[in-house]
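If you are new to this repository, start here. Below is one unmodified record pulled from the training split, so you can see the exact layout before writing a loader.
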Amino acid sequence: MPWRQKPGRADFACLAWMGVLGVVSMAMLPVRAWLLGSPDRIPLLVALTGSRSGTVSLGALVHTGQYSVVWGVGQLIVHLPWIVPVIAGTIMSCKFDWVYWWAGKLWGRGMIEVWAGKSPRARHRYERMERWAAKMGWLGIVIAYLPIPLPLMPVVFVLAGASGMSVKRFMALDLTVCLAWLLGFVALGAAVGAPVETALGIYAKVANFVTIALIVAIVAWTFVRSSKKTRTPAKN
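And here is the target side for that same chain:
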């Protein structure tokens, strides 16, 4: 466990929120895959998840003039500009980031130790990212959004809480940086243009199969993990 003393209500609450975060992230994987499968669903994908690939696709749709979101109530019809799903996506993308900050405030680097586990390789990797994030300070939040296959973002957010940064400052920085990155991805999609559309069209043909495969994989992973826990003998 990440704590070093007798846990209190806040410790259990934060750990529960960590669990909620993990479940939501897993559940959203097939939803993201399905939403990415159609140009008409791209704005919704961006608004609900702040998806980077979705935001690049959104920029391409805007560039080619295919972006169109109409919202109406009765006789009132409003054409929503592309910035609306981007702002919504910023908020949705950051909605659980405060949990990482809270974990850092409560347990210091305890959550990082839990993630690293007993693997020397994983521990070395997390320690390296931790040293790097500590040197960067608050600027680490800017770099945390780099699209790289490393768990850099949660480490930076945990260290923000551990360093004593207030939650208001953390969330203000987080939202600002996230919005800036998403705007950059929109610009990238607009600059690339047609090739993004072509790739999106190719993916659309297999999107349903990808969604089904992800659902099957998540169910199978959950079943296997549950079975292992059931077979593991209790230690005296």
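Two things worth knowing about this chain: The chain has a mean pLDDT of 79. The two ends are 19 Å apart (CA to CA).
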